[in-house]
Amino acid sequence: MSIYDSMNERQREAVFHTEGPLLILAGAGSGKTRVLTHRIAYLIEEKGVNPWNILAITFTNKAAGEMRERVDRLVAFGAESVWVSTFHSACVRILRRHIDRLGYDSKFTIYDSDDQKTLMKDICKRLQIDTKQWKEKTLLGIISSAKNELIGAQEYEMNTMGDFSKRKIAEAYKEYQRQLRTNNALDFDDLIMKTVELFKLNPDVLEAYQERFKYIMVDEYQDTNTAQFKLISLLASKYQNLCVVGDDDQSIYKFRGANIRNILNFEDVFPSARVVKLEQNYRSTKTILDAANHVIRNNLERKNKTLWTANDGGAPIIFQNFMTAYEEAEYIAEDLAKRVAAGDGNYSDCAILYRTNAQSRLLEEKFLLANIPYRIIGGVNFYARKEIKDLLSYLKTVDNARDDLAVRRIINVPRRGIGAATLAKVQDFAVENEISFYNALRAAEEIPALGRSVAKLKPFVTLIQTLRAQQEYFSVAELLKEVIDRTDYVKELEDENTEESRARIENIDELISKAASYDEEAENPTLSGFLEEVALVADIDNLEENNDRVVLMTLHSAKGLEFPNVYLAGMEDGIFPSYMTIVSEDPTDLEEERRLCYVGITRAMRQLTITSARSRMIRGETQYNKVSRFIQEIPRELVQVGSMIKPKVQELPKQTAYIQAKQAFQAKAFEPKQYKVTKADKLEYGVGDRVKHIKFGAGTVENIVEGGKDYEVTVNFDRAGVKKMFAAFAKLKRE
DNA sequence: GGCATAGCTTTTTTT
DNA sequence: AAGCTATGCC
Q1: Are strands A308-309 and A22-26 parallel, antiparallel or unpaired?
Q2: Quick one: residue A56, left, alpha or beta (phi over 0 = left, psi -120 to 50 = alpha)?
Q3: From residue A319, how far is each of A578, A595, A597, A638 by CA, in Å?
């Protein structure tokens, strides 16, 4: 029996079709990773393809690692020679070797969005662009979109003739690229675009890689952008052995430049392409799959396919609507704990998915209270944290002092009494003499305008020079420790001794151990190598499997994952679908949200619980939302609607299931205006009074603010601390 | 010239 | 709720 016997016919068709373009339309849970890994195995074992000639592109480093591992298990040997990586890391690898052809130094650094913003802020100042009118982020967004479409600064400028505001943007774009070049840095989009540029300008290099990668596979193809498409087209144009796998229904990265046309028009670009559809789902129960199918059916822009499963019907989907996001979070924590306690899976079998990172806060709070082990993916990326960026900037400066941004970030961290005025003078000197910022620092004595400030700059330069001298003899971890020692970075945090500073120290410890494990594991560890690795990690890459914790993450991060028990939280119009897409004139924006919903539903294997809240705090103010329109698209018979308000809190006579169902499903009943709080004419308590809350117990009223709809009462509870609450909900009783 | 603080604004998703 | 900017103070 061969390893291919256990596959279904479609899957086998995809595996055995090795020559020429191939489009695999793989629905959610249809075993596409399995197909890809078996296809690689088949190429190597049966077709005698040299593993060295295979390139597999995945979406995240985590997916790449998993794929390599799985191929390793299927193939006797050679798996390690297969290139499995993300677009970005593949491009970095190529650029490190050949970027000198484009006039860059091979030691280039990679700018994250934080660095980009700092740089753009600087440019706006210099070009006198009003950042009230054009925010840095907006400009960067426009530049990013241009790069994703392979439109360079020059070309962008040519297209903007006559349009005044666009010309200003073009100017910013040009200056931005110029700055990147002088700093010897690339941003994320550059990694792809510069590689395409490299191939276009250097046919010999392109040909070498075409020969190298005779067989190319691309996973999550629906989320590739134009630049990425061009890249693989170039690579595959010689041998045409391009296999792409994707699901147009799971395209959720349009905002990042993903071009859904890449998958919808694949057959037009490669007329000889074979198309294989994988429509059998092995992951979810019939109920869950039915729900997903009914939701996605409302999209117009999609390839025709219907996912089916031979799995059981399974448990109904549970839908719960709550008064507040607070209760919602509480319910999820309780329900989850109950299920785990009942032996219905482990914590790691559960995932909470939400639309925005901000929603994780409340959930986290409740999980902490309930003592449920959890892990939050996303939010502020580990490597984007201040303390980590500070220390990495030191390492960057030691490694590549052409990166002005890094130098400027740390020159006054820890405080050395060097301020904006001093920096401006150094900057002027650097521009005048066309040298880097750091070299200007080294020559500080020659800047007359500085005066006595020179004395403050000297120790910094000495420090960097010393570290640079040590670099040769130190491992990355040792160098990092040296930085920490010499700057007293951790010592300052220790003195601060707050909860926040302790968390920062923990992060620093984690960074040290990451450096140490890099030193150990890398084939040929270098400082540049470490910095590069660190620049390209996504948060999801660090999701360890052998850890019994609930995962909390955005729907976007959840792509490609599966969990027996999934909670979709915050299913409200305005949250999901987001407000922006509801008011958007472009109806395809809403379709993308629906695809996201489809992705969310199809993550669940056995149990899906959907929750929403009538009110929730957003950016400091309470919002009232209707139940998400996507809920209406799920057939009623698949859903079990739970009680809306927890009986504990609410003492109304129990409503029948029918009335509850009606309430939950009649979206019209949830017009914001209809949600009225009966504002008491007068409260029975005042500031300073002792009151009692059903859950928090006794406390003292600290403040009462009269809002439009209700009184907002601040109470300092003896046990639970200070809470702000609406009088109508709090039901406070005078003690 | 540098540092602390009080108001002011927020695109949701990320390699 | 939180980060950033402008302002005032040392």
Answers
A1: unpaired
A2: beta
A3: 20, 20, 15, 10
> Which of A148-157, A332-341, A580-589, A636-645 is predicted least confidently?
A636-645
Positions in chain C where some atom is under 7 Å from a protein CB: 1-2, 5
Q: For residues A286-299, b (16+ Cβ closer than 10 Å) or e, as one string?
A: bbbbbbbbbbbeeb
Paired tokens of A717: 């509870």
C2 C1': nearest CA residue:
A619
**CA–CA separation, A551 and A549 (whole Å):** 6
Could you read off the pLDDT of A206-247 as tens digits, one per residue?
A: 999 999 999 999 999 999 999 999 999 999 999 999 999 999
Tokens of residue A522, six digits: 């890398």
Nucleotide nearest to A724 (CA to C1'): C1
For residue A56, list its beta bridge partners. Answer: A84, A217
Matching residue, tokens 């009966």? A678
Which residue from A48, A41, A224 is spatially nearest to A148, judged by alpha carbons? A224
Q: How far apart are CA A90 and CA A67, in angstroms?
A: 15
pLDDT for A412: 84
Backbone angles phi, psi at A689, to 5 degrees: -75, 155
Tell me the C-alpha distance between A234 and A221, whole Å.
16
Q: Is the CB of A121 under 7 A from strand C?
A: yes
Q: Is the pLDDT of residue A16 over 90?
A: yes
Q: Which residues of A are catalytic?
A: 32-33, 219-220, 250, 603
User: Is pTM, for the whole model, over 0.85?
Assistant: no
Task: Kindly give, in sequence order, each residue whose CB lies less than 8 Å from that of residue A314, ignoring residues fewer than 6 positions away.
Answer: A284, A285, A286, A287, A288, A606, A607
Q: What is the mean pLDDT of chain A?
A: 85
Give the CA distances from residue A13 to residues A36, A43, A248, A321, in Å, rounded to whole numbers and listed in that order: 12, 13, 20, 45
- Kindly report, residue by residue over A385-436, the tens digit of the pLDDT: 888 888 998 999 998 878 888 888 888 878 787 877 788 888 888 888 888 8
Tell me which long-range contacts A623-626 makes (C-beta under 8 A, separation of at least 24). A623/A574, A624/A672, A624/A675, A625/A572, A625/A573, A625/A574, A625/A575, A625/A670, A625/A672, A626/A572, A626/A573, A626/A574, A626/A667, A626/A670, A626/A671, A626/A672
**How far, in Å, is the CA of A489 from the C1' of nucleotide C10?**
26
Is the minimum distance from the CB of A647 to strand C below 7 Å? no
Chain A residues 115 to 174 whose Cβ lies within 7 Å of strand B are: 135, 137-138, 141
Nucleotide with minimal C1' distance from the CA of A87 is B15
H or E segment to which residue A199 belongs: helix A188-201
At A5 the three-state DSSP class reads: coil
Scanning every strand, the nucleotide with its C1' closest to A131's CA turns out to be C5
Residues 6+ apart with CB under 8 A from A644: A320, A321, A322, A323, A660, A663, A664
- Give nucleotides in strand B with any atom < 7 A to a protein C-beta: 1-3, 9-15
Q: How far is the CA of A111 from the C1' of C3 (A)?
A: 21
Give the percent of chain A with pLDDT over 90: 46
